[in-house]
Write a structure and sequence with these properties.
The protein is α/β, with parallel strands linked by helices and 486 residues long. The chain is built from 16 helices and 19 strands. The strands form six sheets. It has a four-stranded parallel beta sheet with strand order 1-13-12-11, with helices on one face. A four-stranded parallel beta sheet has the order 2-3-6-7. Strands 14-15-16-19 form a four-stranded antiparallel beta sheet. Strand 12, helix 14 and strand 13 form a beta-alpha-beta unit.
């Protein structure tokens, strides 16, 4: 009896006096962005199968996890169709490698794609080294500061930087190969670095003795652009794509905004400005820039178009309703990539809903794109060759952005066989507001989405394989048609 009393007292002491960590294991607290993803998504009603997952900026870089925690997180995200992305951070390479490998082992164990952000490995070619400066006619070095950085210099000085950048990619890739883990998706957000032709770059290169030596027809912007983009593509191939693909031939490797296209780009990035004298295709107040073919020379294995509502787009057009200003421009960009990307090359499109404000000061006349128009845009992108989305957003935007894109992505899985094996039948974007129709052909069946920007109730003709389908309005839903057997 005495011993039993002592035992009970000891148990009570442990429960009420020892710190909680000794009494029970605390519940896992995910980093806030990841918890936001989990809170604003639901498990898929329709299976994703082997199609690419949805990628979300908040579902990246989970930090240090225990193996069982990584497996739990990867599994919970996969239930929602979301792929967790780890970061290769060269500035903290040992720590980031250890963190990323824990996630990669969990993904491999569960039979899922291993996803990597390799951005840090690529920055920077223009690292401030005096050897990378432009050289004026007087022999003095100078920099191009028109991109918001003081270190943009001569694109023909960067060869000595190649080994250092290639070594970074190799460091992580070799560690994965040693572990028997093959990355399945590797992307980079490499933008303001290396050879570029916009802003003051053309003017700076015309003043640079070295650039003039390497570009015979430098006064012709399109000739200048062709040389610069070829050099930019070669850098990406040499230090990034090839080091990965020689080790992991089946990997999807690509970079932000590098995609096949129709010869034009329909938007300006936040660091880009139009310069008078450069050729452009004009429509109303829009100026669509000529864009060189840079995708194929990189060796990339997936395309990554950017489909954002940049605030400048709104005032380019006079469309009513306002939503069509956004929808028209963004679907043109998505359709350009969809139409000209080979079928075997996946398209992973960067998307965003909140207006991306690059005007300074902010233009109060710019109206936000409606949630309805944005989600309809996402549907049409899926029917025009986009395989999956990669959502980028700011921290304060995460909950809304995740919910909007995920609800479309989840609903679209109902049509998984069309998404996986269908062929897009229409890339036209109407020049004025009205019905917009997109479709995927699979066998003798056609999955169609019609979105109306007017009150028209008339059926729209869609020509598929020599037959005319009459597509009636069907607000907020897809329709499936069967072709006649001829």
């Amino acid at each position: 009896m005495h011993n039993r009393t002592i035992l009970v007292a000891a148990v009570l002491f442990c429960l009420f006096w020892l710190p909680p960590t000794y009494a029970e294991k605390p519940l896992m607290q995910w980093p806030e962005p990841l918890q936001t993803v989990l809170d604003n998504t639901q498990p898929l009603r329709f299976p994703r199968g082997k199609r690419l997952p949805l990628y979300l900026w908040p579902a990246m870089t989970p930090g240090k996890l225990e193996p069982e925690q990584a497996e739990t997180l990867v599994r919970e995200l996969d239930k929602r169709g979301v792929g967790l992305v780890s970061r290769w951070d060269w500035n903290r390479r040992e720590q980031s490698l250890a963190e990323a490998l824990i996630v990669a082992r969990a993904q491999q164990k569960l039979g899922l794609r291993v996803n990597i952000d390799a951005t840090s490995c690529l920055y920077s070619f223009f690292d401030g080294d005096p050897r990378t400066a432009h050289i004026g006619a007087d022999g003095q070095p100078f920099w191009d500061d028109s991109f918001g950085t003081e270190n943009m210099g001569c694109p023909f000085t960067l060869d000595f930087r190649r080994p250092a950048i290639r070594e970074r990619v190799g460091y992580f890739a070799d560690a994965y190969r040693k572990e028997g883990i093959a990355p399945g998706f590797v992307f980079a957000d490499w933008e303001i670095d290396g050879p570029l032709e916009w802003n003051g770059a053309w003017e700076a290169s015309q003043r640079c003795a070295r650039c003039r030596e390497h570009i015979p027809h430098i006064e012709n912007f399109l000739e200048f652009q062709k040389v610069i983009r070829a050099l930019r593509a070669d850098l990406q191939r040499d230090v990034y794509a090839e080091p990965l693909l020689t080790r992991f031939p089946k990997a999807l490797v690509g970079n932000y905004a590098v995609t096949p296209h129709d010869g034009f780009r329909y938007w300006f990035d936040y660091y880009e400005k139009f310069v008078d004298g450069q050729p452009a295709l004009t429509e109303q107040k829009a100026r669509y820039r000529h864009w060189a073919n840079e995708f194929e020379p990189t060796g990339y294995t997936f395309a990554m178009p950017v489909v954002y509502p940049w605030d400048s787009i709104y005032n380019w057009y006079d469309f009513t309703p306002d939503d069509y200003r956004w929808f028209y421009n963004m679907l043109r960009e998505a359709s350009s990539a969809g139409q000209y990307t080979p079928r075997a090359v996946p398209i992973i499109s960067f998307v965003h809903w909140h207006t991306v404000e690059v005007s300074n000061p902010r233009d109060p006349a710019v109206q936000q794109m409606s949630e309805w128009a944005y989600q309809e845009l996402l549907w049409h992108m899926l029917l025009r060759r986009t395989d999956t989305f990669f959502l980028w957003c700011m921290p304060q935007e995460q909950a809304k952005e995740v919910a909007l894109v995920h609800s479309v992505w989840a609903a679209a899985q109902e049509y998984g066989t069309f998404l996986e094996r269908g062929t897009s039948v229409n890339f036209e974007v109407p020049k004025r507001p009205g019905p917009v129709v997109s479709g995927l052909l699979l066998g003798d069946r056609v999955l169609v989405r019609r979105t109306d920007f007017t009150d028209s109730k008339e059926p729209v003709e869609l020509k598929v394989r020599g037959q005319i389908l009459l597509v009636p309005p069907a607000k907020g839903r897809c329709q499936v048609f069967t072709l006649k057997r001829l």
